[in-house]
Amino acid sequence: MTVAGGVIGARVSRAEDVRLLTGRAVFIDDLRPPGVLEAAILRSPHPHARIVRLDTTAAAAHPGVFAVVTGADVKSLVRRPQPLIWRLAPGGPETVAYPLAVDKVLYTGHGLAAVAAVDRATAEDALELIDVEYEPLPAVTTLEQALAPDAPRLHEDWPDNVAGRAVVAQGDVEAAFAGADVVLRETFRFARQWGASLETRGVVATWDPFTSHLDAWVNTQSPHLIRELFAEVLGLSVDKVRVRVPDIGGGFGSKSGFYGDQVVAAVLSRVSGRPVKFLEDRRESFVATVHAREQRIDVEVAARTDGTITGLRGTVHGVLGANFSTVGLSPCWTTAAIMTGPYAIPAVELDVVGVVTNKPPYGAYRGYGLPKANFVHEHVVEALARHLGLDPHEVRRRNFVTEFPYQSPVFVYDSGRYAECLDLCRDAVRRAGWADRVARARAEGAHMGIGYAFHNEVSAFAPSRIVNMSGLDHSGFDEAAVRIDSSGRVTVHTGQTSMGQGIHTALAQVAAHALDVPLDHVTVVSGDTDSAPYTGYGTAASRAAAVGGAAVLNAATRLRAKVLRIAAHVFEASPDDLEISDGVVSVKGVPGRSVTLAAIGDAAYRRPHGVLPDDEEPTLHEREVYDPVNVATAFGCTAVLASVDVETGAVELLGYLIAHDCGTMINPMIVEGQLQGGAAQAIGGALYERLAYDASGEALTRSFAEYLLPTAGVVPPFGINHMETPADHIPGGFKGAGEAGVIGGGAAIAHAVEDALAEFGVRITSLPITPPDLLAAIRAGAER
Amino acid sequence: MKAARFDYVRATTVDVAVDALARGAVALAGGQSLVPLLNARSRRPEVVVDVSRLPLTGVEQDGSTLVLGALTRLRAAETSPVVRRAVPLLAEALTHVGHVSVRNRGTVGGSVAHADPAAELPAVFLALDAVFTARGPGGTREVDARDFFLGPYRTALAPDELLTDIRVPLPPPTARHGLAELSRRPNDLAITAVFTSVTLTDRVVTEARIAVAGAAPTPIRAHAAEELLRGQALTPEVLAGVADAAADATDPVDDVHAPAAYRRDMTAVLTRRALRQAVGG
Ligand SMILES: Cc1cc2nc3c(=O)[nH]c(=O)nc-3n(C[C@H](O)[C@H](O)[C@H](O)COP(=O)(O)OP(=O)(O)OC[C@H]3O[C@@H](n4cnc5c(N)ncnc54)[C@H](O)[C@@H]3O)c2cc1C
Question: Does domain B7-50 bear CATH number 3.30.1460.10?
């Protein structure tokens, strides 16, 4: 089903914004239940050490302290270790991690004890009174250190530091390489980065000692998943756990997992008998929230002289943290799963190797493996074109998937018009006059260049049964309920989470469109597992608008049918002869024969007599469970104009154009916001962000003075061009847009830099591109 | 992190402030550097004495000297017509100190007393031979800029001394300035920055000042480079020699943003750029 015109597709401003912009939003830190305590966590100063002695006596005696727990205490109060929901390497070793370290600390910042006190400052005072004796152990922080034959082992019962292996394969790779005209090889490195949001992660947990009921406010993207995992870990039935979600100041995937500190807050509440708030401070967020991106990828590509890519093989090394996050190896597996991107590469064999290091867990961050895959396949396209003397866009075209559905090594791509999207992007570049700008700059001795990257994105995650078979211990459907009340106004209930992205507005648009009611007659309610419909995977994986939107669309469409049946009864007409416009039902072509939704609502709830047909149940309420039959592939092309100062190695971005297709757009303004925010994060990833460690394993980036996010001053203006290829299998034709912006930016920036530095033959194979590294590459090129 | 417990006193007079300092208090001016340090518990004074409301504010020209009250907000100094006219290098350097919101609160004296080796103002004051006035229990003393910066975050101020004003001898009206700063993002603390003030007579340099931030434990003057410049016209060869001499004056360290060698190299690049700006503009 596709939809066009009307409220779907309208650039309406976001209903959420007034509250957010006027300071009326309620974030986790604004919640102060009576008697609430604040928690602080003692964190290891060592990257790897045995805990020889841990004495909390003085801390417990400190005035204002209500509870102190150690890792062992927490372990004794939980039913099982922290859950892993995605097993991609069945039979492979798994880390056994409790919310706090028990015998050994495995990374700088690893929590080992926690205090609940009258306020955070007092809790921190008490942390200083905890007496710990550590026996430092040698640490490994790089892939090479971790894989060295004599490497210190993080988990002593493992044979080595390999956390799992998986394979992504399709076709006959041996034959492809045996018959290749050219074979190119390259190694890529991606630094550790993370999805830093403006608001840090937090929880306010209240344990009811009489009913053993946990009431937790969590600024999470996955309230139902968190509820399930709280229940599993605490040994409660699910009905005993309520998860509520306040306003969220950004998530980016890093708020989607289930964290040990959430359990710690619950345990502290249980021990102290008071509500307990734990909110990461900015400093600890650098070690307490999952990291991401760090990989080394070795690939070989087989091709023909005309640029046709016939084979791809290699290894994705995921440089994981010491313990698994909720999603384990899956972000690195996803890199391999979509390494062929938009290209029809018939033979693929990619190993995925996860390796543990003495660093915080590796988890979700917007893009989820895709930015690395994109960097690799786009580098391959450019390298092949250079090697064969072809235009890289010709190589792209020659290899694009053109027939859909297309079975890639893992995913089935539902639809796409890649060549048209590439043209849309190139036209935008032409209109912007970049080529002239580059020519003029070069004539003046400056170094300016243009780079492109084409991406596709697996969105609308995901068919529940298929993802279960892939090792995911969770579902991918969405439930929605749409109600019209007795005044004719509409309420949409969703399991999706609002975190600044505008999902309430988008879902309201879907319902308003389906019901033909004014947009401001629709309210969206979410954020409480006691009342909200169930969401499988939560608000992540570019699925909220597509899967959540489809569920709302179906429910609202059914509700519309009920409205029409009631109105038909009133008019003694056929529902087919009726129409709804602006909340009024009328008989087509008969002016004056109309009834308002308010009147129908009144009949449905309060005064059915004479209006509601006898066979019609009172109330106006429909519920839908939508489980997609397939993911939906969105796609796009990014073009970047950049200049490089060849004396300093500094890169400046001068222009940034995106052509994008996410199927039917619910609200182009929201799509653009998503693309821009994602692109800003791509810029951060390409040029600034790196979680750095020294040789001994010490963390060097502990604040935003060392970990550089892209600021307004380094983010250029964006130009966005849309096209719409609806997902045929998804009601509404929606595809996801949440992650798109971050995927292609790194490669496009790298290619712009390479183009600017063509005379030096600089090749970018690692991110971020820092001025000292780039200057060294320029100098090496100048010497060649 | 939350600061460790401390007592807070607001000084109403300089004497009260000095008295508090003498009893171990730490001065709080704009708080832009001190408050993060307190919150990280890397500084844990028992008493913080808030000096921000002392009447040590304002900028004025006193004959051939620019006098800045230590508690003048960075933004006030930056936008002061007096500063812009009398010492344009200082006015331009101020636009590089953090963001406007930081400059609205941060003070000129705080930046000097904090003595971050990469900070702009200490280097500018060093380039211009400023004199700092300190008030302690024993009275007032003056310290030349060249004797003031002792190491990273370390100055000649005794713990019981309050910086009260900064006196900058005005460069001659014919002096021209140049500033070249390299930072990762606009308004970040510099990786390296070079500040120059040059006087030319008939295209020949008669006086030159070159100071570098971010390339040594303290801001430094590149004296040998200055010497090479004096009496010369700014040809590319002279420029290259001067730039190399400035780089030789550095003593940088590695950090997460750049290795030492990069900072050294950048000193040469930035010296050339700053000098070109000075003579070209
Ligand atoms: C986001 C951000 C960006 C920044 N970027 C830059 C930058 O680019 N360049 C740069 O140079 N700085 C930068 N800074 C640092 C900051 O601007 C200065 O260090 C700051 O303004 C110091 O002045 P203050 O008045 O805030 O001092 P405070 O923070 O109040 O004090 C700093 C130190 O100086 C001492 N002190 C203050 N006044 C006196 C006095 N009168 N006598 C004796 N001791 C005194 C205090 O005791 C303390 O030790 C930045 C800061 C932030 C938060």
Answer: no
